[in-house]
């Protein structure tokens, strides 16, 4: 058994960064806070790579793979009790290594490292540079802790922490009201989803009598007493297991921006662009997928209906997000909707998968897509960062012909767009094919949705690409009026170009990794063969999407406008993202605030407190009534005195005889 | 021995008590009120003496109590008159209606 | 270890403060005194741990008994278990922070500081007492100074609030006293908690006097619908008094509910549990909704205290081990958190001269330290992991969930739902005050926290973070006390 104790350092190094930069980042470490943060995450990334090598690598026979089979077994590298509630029920801080967690630490730490490096250039000169790196480190810590969690409540703790660091980073430009509103919204929407997660945990842990993932999964997938008790108990016609899993999935859906809890993600683009790349594209938003994958055996073996919910929610989100992405003009919002759509892919891939063996293709494909998506989506966001850095605008309408000014960015962005569109041999092709294959094998409806969405994806990504880099003869249209800024950012610094190149190489090559040999639903390597004939349809559709985008946006023309006005009402509906935001605003502002909050405050002031004040006034009233008796007149007092005596005499003589 | 029945004496003392009470409650003059209080005390004295004589002829407790009351009455009169003199100095009157400073 | 030091040191300090001259002397003496208390409580913690480690498993440690009024069996009887040690530590931290926050408090600073120290004295005595009458004595001692603190140094409708607070708390103590007398006569003439725990108390007595004690103490802990002193009292009180009021005083009630009412009369507690749970759930949810509509920062924190103290009562009402554990954790956590919140609000108010959220804005730019503290307190309030509230709240949730039965489950779910509402109001408040553009140009000249304010905040933040990051430490301290509590509750149930 190899020694895995060092794994604990992977999350702890960024934590150290957060503590140091949080305490001293404003003054003392101001100058080198970026270097410090980057250095620590670099160390963590190297450790993660080493861990992956050790777990999956050549020496696997000694480590991950047991002697009997070739499966990768989960390893609990570390565990101590953090908070115990009752025997068997405790939150442990643990480090769980299994194929998906090892894959995730590599993804998280590498993307985080790229973003750290990129930010050195992008955020240069910001007033709160140290704070920014502190928050980034906090996020990296939480996300790494999340993926390494071996205890469902530990996962919840880090889950909340990533939510908090996302909140802090979205609201990084705190003097911008829109950023503040977006950060608030992100926190509250995910909080609402976390409520489901929390109650789901309570249900699962109560009946499973444990919070430990391994034990929980074991108990809920075999006919143990716990399994019988949770499936026999039912509420509103569904077994409590279904309730628990669905509620947990709601938590995941909130974090992963699944419909209808996706509203926070487009707004979250108010944060600095590298943050969007890290948190809102590559890592945090896939936490929901990770969560479902973590509990996948339970979903798959014990409760197919809950898995069906996952599949349909994922497919619907993929489709609707792709549709919404087609009309957006803010470059980051397009990317946000595309993220949502791609996560939808991962979700429904899990949803259509089965546990174990070849049937687990969807699971493997989902994880693979998570892996490749993290790379090319982070790349897209970083390209967007470079562009925004140059143009000082998020609006695609303000861009055009940038391929001459930003040749490197242009190439990188093209690679990423090809990858996300699923054009061979870029990484996205391989993972998307496998997802579609898994869907084809299990559910034709979902396959159809996925296929159509992949065409849409190609269209809106190339719409973005052509609008930015091609359309229009002259480069940056706005830079003319802003020469000062143009000078300051005349050339893109190396710190910003390096991550682009690394991630572009990833997007080129990651698809060649024999992923199914490493990450599968049960740890047993499988071989995947996607028939060539199967690939024709998606690729053809993607090429058609690209062609349409080129025709519409390749050159300056009024074709897009004419098309939009041709489908007027529908276009407006999509452009306003189906008015989902407005519906939420109505529910919260009108219903929660006006119909619940305001009456509650009013009742408290006027009825409950009124009762107390009424009691006091009543006492005062009584005393006002009887204070006249204290007239100060001696003879009145004498009269009371005699009346009292007479009364007592009557009492004692006639009533209390004995 | 043919003696006066107790009821006769009690009648006198009751009459005295209520006369005193009437005076105390109706008169405005503090001196008169003091005199009424004396009447009440004396009605009590009569009661004590009478009950002592008729019920416990072999004891003297009631008589002792009467003596106490007379003493107390004297002291009380002295204090009361002192108060009245001060009131008169302050208010130029000993009308009880005007001594209602101590109210709510 | 002589526990009476906890009563003597504040008393001596209070007297010394009265005898000294001027603000400078008063504050330094108070600082020295409260620092002494904090050190002493750390010594107590250390010694307590030593004793427990050495295998001393008696119910209470460092007991001391002195007959006070023999005819009525009233003793001065003190002693501590883990719960009281934790509460004493909490008191010491908050008193020190309170003294630091009121560094420039005037006029009549002498009187202010000595009243503050007398409050501390009352709280220490209350947490130490093992004799119900002594406990009651100290409870009263910690009510009266509040009236003066609010009435003299308060703001807003201070006379009204002071009167309201004093009257409601006094009626609470009156009910407590009735309950104590009921226990005294119902148990064969004893005020001693340990002795009372041995005597079986008849069901009739329990049924009659449990509500008296629970409601009486409950008023201190903002039991719905008797919580209305909380918003007015907190918002009118000067900063240190608010901190003390919310941080410690509300915990006096909770501690009383637990240690006196529920511990001594578990059967009645079980019988009345549904009512307690319903009231607590109403307090949690309704308090949270009421908070959402508040405009004044102090009102926001006061109403959120109603909501958060609901968790304590919910935990006590659920009567499962984890729930009780969570209730105790919540007492400590809420004490630190709310004190920090009030401290930061006080600092903002001292500078901006307003507490209205719609008039504040962009403070992060002007006073980064205070704003950070404010946000930390807010994040703690909404239950962010790594800070103390999270630990307490999830312990309550898990404990409550272990109580089967639809009503209990529903109550737990509603309580869980309140974390979302908490997030809404906390984020609204901090978004409007701390973030956004600087609203008033006058704010741009304001200064950040001074050293004493920094020290106070750091002290409280340290407490919050230590509990949030390493709850096992506190849990181990509390464990024997709660176990003994559960054993007792279980046994008496069997007897019946």
How would you sum up this structure, described in words?
The complex is a heterotrimer of chains A (658), B (104) and C (496). Helix content of chain A is 70%, strand content 4%. Chain A is built from 26 helices and four strands. Chain A has helices at 9-24, 33-56, 99-122, 129-148, 152-170, 177-208, 213-221, 225-232, 240-255, 264-267, 273-282, 287-294, 296-302, 304-325, 331-352, 361-391, 407-421, 427-442, 444-469, 483-488, 494-509, 532-553, 559-566, 568-575, 580-626, 634-655; strands at residues 75-86, 89-97, 234-235, 238-239. Chain B has 104 residues and is an all-alpha fold. Chain B has one domain (6-96): Orthogonal Bundle (Helix Hairpins). Helices cover 75% and strands 0% of the residues of chain B. In chain B, helix 2 packs antiparallel against helix 3 (61-91). In chain C, strands 1-2 form a two-stranded antiparallel sheet. Chain C has one domain. Chain C is 76% helix and 3% strand. In chain C, a hairpin with a 4-residue loop joins strand 1 and strand 2 (74-80). Chains in contact: A-B, A-C. Chains A and B meet through helix 26 of A and helix 1 of B.
Keywords:
heterotrimer, B: 104 residues, 3 helices, C: 496 residues, mainly alpha, 76% helix, 3% strand
Total E-strand runs of chain A: 4
Give the tally of structural domains of chain C.
Answer: 1
Strand arrangement across the biggest beta sheet of chain A: 1-2
Number of helices of chain C: 20
- Which of globular, elongated, flat, extended, rod-shaped describes the shape of chain C? globular
Residues in β-strands, percent of chain A:
under 5%
Largest sheet of chain A: 2 strands, antiparallel
Category by helix and strand content of chain A? mainly alpha
Overall strand count of chain C: 2
The end-to-end distance of chain A, rounded to whole angstroms, is 94 Å
Instruction: Report the helical percentage of chain A.
Output: 55-70%
Report helical residue fraction of chain C.
over 70%
Please, what is the average pLDDT of chain C?
A: 87
Which structural category fits the helices and strands of chain C? mainly alpha
What is the residue-mean pLDDT of chain A, rounded to a whole number?
Answer: 83
Shape of chain A: globular
């Amino acid at each position: 058994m190899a020694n895995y104790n060092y794994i604990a350092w992977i999350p702890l190094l960024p934590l150290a960064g957060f503590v140091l930069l949080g305490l001293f980042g404003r003054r003392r470490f101001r100058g080198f806070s970026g270097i410090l943060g980057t250095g620590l995450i670099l160390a963590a990334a190297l450790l993660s790579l080493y861990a992956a090598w050790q777990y999956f690598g050549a020496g696997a026979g000694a480590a991950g793979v047991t002697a009997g089979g070739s499966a990768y077994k989960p390893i609990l590298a570390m565990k101590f009790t953090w908070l115990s509630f009752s025997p068997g029920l405790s939150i442990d801080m643990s480090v769980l290594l299994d194929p998906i967690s090892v894959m995730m630490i590599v993804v998280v730490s590498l993307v985080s490292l790229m973003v750290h490096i990129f930010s050195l250039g992008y955020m240069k000169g910001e007033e709160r540079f140290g704070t920014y790196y502190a928050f980034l480190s906090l996020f990296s810590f939480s996300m790494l802790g999340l993926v390494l969690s071996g205890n469902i409540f530990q996962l919840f703790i880090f889950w909340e922490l990533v939510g908090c660091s996302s909140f802090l980073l979205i609201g990084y430009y705190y003097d911008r009201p829109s950023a503040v509103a977006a950060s608030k919204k992100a926190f509250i929407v995910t909080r609402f989803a976390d409520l489901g997660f929390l109650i789901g945990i309570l249900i699962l842990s109560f009946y499973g009598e444990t919070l430990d993932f391994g034990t929980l999964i074991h108990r809920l997938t075999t006919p143990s007493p716990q399994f019988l008790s949770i499936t026999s108990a039912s509420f509103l016609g569904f077994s409590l297991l279904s309730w628990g899993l669905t509620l947990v999935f709601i938590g995941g859906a909130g974090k992963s921006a699944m419909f209808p809890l996706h509203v926070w993600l487009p707004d979250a683009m108010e944060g600095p662009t590298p943050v969007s790349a890290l948190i809102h594209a590559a890592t945090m938003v896939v936490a929901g997928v990770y969560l479902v994958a973590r509990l996948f055996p339970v979903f798959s073996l014990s409760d197919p209906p809950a898995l069906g919910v996952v599949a349909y929610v994922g497919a619907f989100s993929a489709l609707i997000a792709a549709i919404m992405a087609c009309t957006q003009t803010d470059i980051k919002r397009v990317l946000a909707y595309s993220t949502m759509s791609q996560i939808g892919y991962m979700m429904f891939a899990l949803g259509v998968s089965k546990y174990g063996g070849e049937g687990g293709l969807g699971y493997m494909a989902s994880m693979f897509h998570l892996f490749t998506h993290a790379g090319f989506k982070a790349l897209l966001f970083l390209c967007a960062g470079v562009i925004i850095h140059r143009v000082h605008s998020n609006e695609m309408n303000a861009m055009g012909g940038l391929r001459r000014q930003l040749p490197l960015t242009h190439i990188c962005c093209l690679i990423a767009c090809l990858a996300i569109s699923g054009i061979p041999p870029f990484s996205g092709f391989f993972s998307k094919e496998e997802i579609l294959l898994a869907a084809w094998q299990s559910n034709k409806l979902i396959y159809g949705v996925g296929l159509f969405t992949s065409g849409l994806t190609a269209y809106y990504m190339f719409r973005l690409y052509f609008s930015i880099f091609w359309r229009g003869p002259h480069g940056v249209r706005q830079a003319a009026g802003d020469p000062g800024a143009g000078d300051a950012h005349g050339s893109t610094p190396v710190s910003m170009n390096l991550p682009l190149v690394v991630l572009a190489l990833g997007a080129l090559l990651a698809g060649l990794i024999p992923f199914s040999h490493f990450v599968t639903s049960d740890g047993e390597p499988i071989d995947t063969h996607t028939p060539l004939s199967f690939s024709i349809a998606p690729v053809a559709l993607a090429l058609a999407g690209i062609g349409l985008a080129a025709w519409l946006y390749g050159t300056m023309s009024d074709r897009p406008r004419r098309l939009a006005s041709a489908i007027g009402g529908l276009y407006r509906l999509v452009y306003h993202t189906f008015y989902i935001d407005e519906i939420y605003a109505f529910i919260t502002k009108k219903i929660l605030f006006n119909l619940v909050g305001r009456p509650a405050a009013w009742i408290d002031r006027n009825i409950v407190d009124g009762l107390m004040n009424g009691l006091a006034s009543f006492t005062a009233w009584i005393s006002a009534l009887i204070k006249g008796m204290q007239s100060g007149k001696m003879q009145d007092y004498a009269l009371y005195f005699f009346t009292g005596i007479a009364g007592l005499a009557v009492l004692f003589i006639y009533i209390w005889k004995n | 021995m043919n003696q006066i029945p107790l009821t006769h004496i009690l009648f006198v003392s009751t009459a005295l008590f209520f006369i005193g009470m009437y005076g105390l409650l109706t008169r405005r003059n503090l001196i008169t009120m003091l005199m009424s209080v004396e009447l009440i005390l004396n009605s009590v004295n009569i009661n004590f003496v009478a009950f002592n004589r008729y019920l416990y002829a072999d004891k003297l407790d009631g008589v002792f109590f009467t003596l106490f009351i007379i003493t107390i009455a004297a002291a009380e009169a002295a204090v009361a008159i002192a108060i009245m003199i001060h009131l008169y100095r302050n208010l130029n009157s000993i009308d009880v209606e005007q001594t209602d400073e101590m109210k709510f | 270890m002589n526990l009476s030091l906890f009563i003597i040191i504040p008393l001596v300090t209070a007297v010394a403060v009265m005898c000294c001259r001027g603000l400078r002397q008063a504050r330094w003496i108070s600082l020295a005194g409260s620092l002494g208390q904090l050190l002493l409580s750390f010594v107590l913690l250390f010694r307590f741990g030593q004793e427990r480690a050495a295998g001393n498993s008696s119910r209470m440690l460092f007991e001391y008994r002195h007959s006070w009024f023999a005819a009525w069996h009233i003793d001065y009887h003190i002693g501590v278990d883990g719960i009281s040690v934790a509460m004493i530590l909490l008191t010491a931290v908050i008193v020190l922070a309170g003294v630091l926050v009121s560094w420039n408090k005037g006029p009549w600073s002498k009187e202010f500081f000595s009243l503050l120290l007398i409050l501390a004295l009352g709280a220490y005595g209350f947490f130490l007492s093992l004799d119900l009458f002594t406990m009651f004595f100290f409870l009263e001692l910690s009510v009266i100074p509040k009236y003066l603190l609010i009435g003299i140094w308060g703001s807003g409708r201070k006379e009204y609030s002071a009167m309201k607070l004093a009257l409601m708390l006094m009626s609470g103590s009156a009910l407590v006293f009735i309950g104590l007398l009921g226990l005294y006569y119902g148990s064969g003439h004893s005020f001693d908690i340990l002795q009372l725990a041995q005597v079986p108390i008849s069901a009739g007595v329990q049924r009659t006097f449990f509500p008296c004690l629970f409601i009486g103490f409950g008023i201190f802990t903002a039991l719905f619908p008797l919580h209305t002193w909380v918003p007015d009292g907190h918002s009118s009180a000067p900063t240190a008094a608010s901190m003390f009021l919310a941080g410690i005083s509300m915990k006096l009630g909770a501690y009383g509910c637990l240690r006196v009412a529920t511990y001594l009369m578990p059967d009645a507690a079980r019988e009345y549990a549904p009512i307690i749970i319903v009231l607590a759930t109403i307090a949690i949810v309704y308090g949270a909704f009421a908070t959402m509509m508040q405009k004044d920062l102090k009102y926001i924190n006061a109403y959120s205290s109603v909501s958060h103290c609901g968790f304590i009562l919910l935990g006590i009402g659920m009567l499962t081990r984890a729930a009780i554990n969570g209730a105790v954790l919540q007492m400590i956590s809420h004490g630190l958190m709310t004190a920090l919140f009030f401290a930061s609000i006080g600092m903002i108010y001292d500078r901006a001269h307003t507490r209205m959220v719609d008039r504040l804005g962009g403070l992060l730019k002007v006073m980064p330290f205070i704003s950070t503290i404010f946000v930390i307190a807010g994040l703690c309030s909404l239950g962010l992991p790594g800070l103390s509230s999270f630990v307490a709240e999830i312990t309550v949730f898990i404990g409550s969930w272990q109580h089967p039965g639809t009503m209990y489950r529903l109550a737990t779910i509603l309580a869980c739902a309140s974390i979302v509402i908490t997030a809404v109001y906390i984020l609204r408040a901090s978004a409007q005050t701390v973030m956004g553009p600087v609203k008033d140009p006058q704010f741009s000249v304001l200064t950040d926290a001074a050293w004493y304010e920094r020290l106070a905040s750091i002290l409280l933040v340290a407490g919050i973070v230590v509990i949030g990051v390493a709850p096992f430490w506190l849990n181990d301290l509390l464990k024997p006390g709660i176990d003994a509590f559960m054993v007792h509750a279980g046994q008496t149930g069997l007897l019946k």
